[in-house]
Design a protein that fits this description.
The protein is of the alpha/beta class. It contains 14 helices and 13 strands.
């Protein structure tokens, strides 16, 4: 007999290829978590998307992407009729490129909208959206307290701003392979654009490779054109040691079998990759980033301050030469994720916002400065 479920609302999750190539696992987690909380979910995704990047449990509505803003807006607006037939209560937009079109869509449907901010680069676009927000009730989700506070301070209009940190499934504690059994394997996550931070890291990796010539470095460049980065790699004669990771490769595949995760840049971007590494007890070495409050020195990661090859080399050698310290860091990070960044917490906070937007009075920036600064 089919289980009788009482659904409390219907939500449309609107995503594009850029978001889903980077965060497909996070998208699927959000879909499953909301369905578990009796929310009907419509996955509004590009029509060229692989089925593996969606979730079979939620309804799927497709649209055709375009690089032309006016064409993109028209195609998003064409979703109004099917979404109205589906009786959606709220639209949640997961990438800033879709914000303007999605706000107009929400206005057409006379439904509230939620906009997810994941990067400091998104901040400049929030005010543009606020100017469009004449009829639609809109809230902004920020992944950290510092980012939420920055949004609030720069807003020219009343829009709700909520801190909803990204969460992750804790997963199993991965056993790091012994260097006696396999070569040193290092995952590197950045934006793929060569800069002084990459230069400092590659300089350190050159020295590491001199001592460990079979070492392998897997560079995840978030889908950018990596030609210029490859030229920097060639300058350090690291071609035999470097592998450029395809943009669609799952984060778990990047991390599996590696000895550490390195983040050479402070991008102000909340990717789930570092959280996933922490959840599995993998040592994370990162450039200090004031926007990301999950990077806590010696608790969740070992941090580098500035483009300094010696700092990178010292920390990488610590992981190699003092595996017990590396394991202890991974265990501390895993415990912290279990206490502060579980997927269930993200789902609960997101659902709470949905419920208030579709029923209760929202708290606006003047009422929430203290709460954002405390988060």
């Amino acid at each position: 007999m089919e289980l009788d479920r009482s659904f409390i609302m219907q939500v449309a999750l609107l995503a594009n290829t850029a978001y889903l190539h980077e965060e497909s696992a996070m998208f699927r987690q959000l879909v499953v978590g909301l369905i578990d909380e009796q929310v009907r979910v419509v996955q509004v995704v590009p029509d060229n998307l692989a089925l593996s990047e969606t979730n079979s449990f939620g309804q799927i509505l497709t649209w055709r992407e375009s690089t032309w803003p006016f064409v993109l807006r028209r195609r998003i607006m064409e979703l109004a009729e099917p979404l109205e037939k589906l009786k959606v209560d709220l639209i949640h937009v997961l990438d800033r490129e879709l914000w303007p079109a999605a706000i107009r869509l929400a206005q057409r449907l006379e439904k509230p909208a939620v906009l997810s901010v994941w990067s400091v680069e998104d901040l400049d676009h929030v005010n543009q959206i606020a100017k469009l927000n004449q009829a639609a009730q809109t809230a902004v989700i920020a992944p950290s307290g510092p980012m939420a506070q920055a949004i609030i301070e720069h807003l020219d209009a009343d829009m709700a701003v909520e801190v909803v940190p990204r969460g992750i499934q804790l997963g199993e504690l991965l056993e790091r392979p012994s260097l006696d059994d396999q070569p040193l394997c290092v995952a590197v996550s950045g934006n793929g654009s060569p800069d002084e931070d990459y230069d400092a890291l590659l300089s350190a990796l050159r020295d590491i490779a001199d001592d460990y010539p079979q070492s392998q470095y897997f560079l995840d460049g978030q889908g950018t054109n990596q030609h210029d980065l490859w030229q920097m790699i060639k300058r350090y004669e690291l071609q035999p040691n470097v592998n450029l990771v395809p943009p669609k490769l799952e984060h778990s595949e990047i991390l599996m079998g590696t000895h550490m995760l390195l983040q050479p840049q402070a991008l102000g971007r909340c990717r789930s990759l570092s959280l996933q590494a922490m959840a599995h007890g993998l040592a994370v070495l990162a450039q200090a980033d004031p926007w990301m409050d999950h990077l806590i020195d010696d608790k969740t990661a070992w941090l580098v301050h500035g483009p300094d090859p010696s700092q990178w080399q010292n920390l990488i050698r610590r992981v190699i030469e003092q595996p017990e310290r590396s394991d202890q860091l991974g265990q501390r990070a895993r415990r912290w994720v279990g206490e502060h960044r579980l997927a269930s917490g993200q789902i609960a906070a997101t659902l709470d916002l949905y419920q208030r937007m579709t029923g209760e009075t929202l708290k606006f920036p003047s009422q929430q400065r203290a709460r954002a600064s405390e988060s």
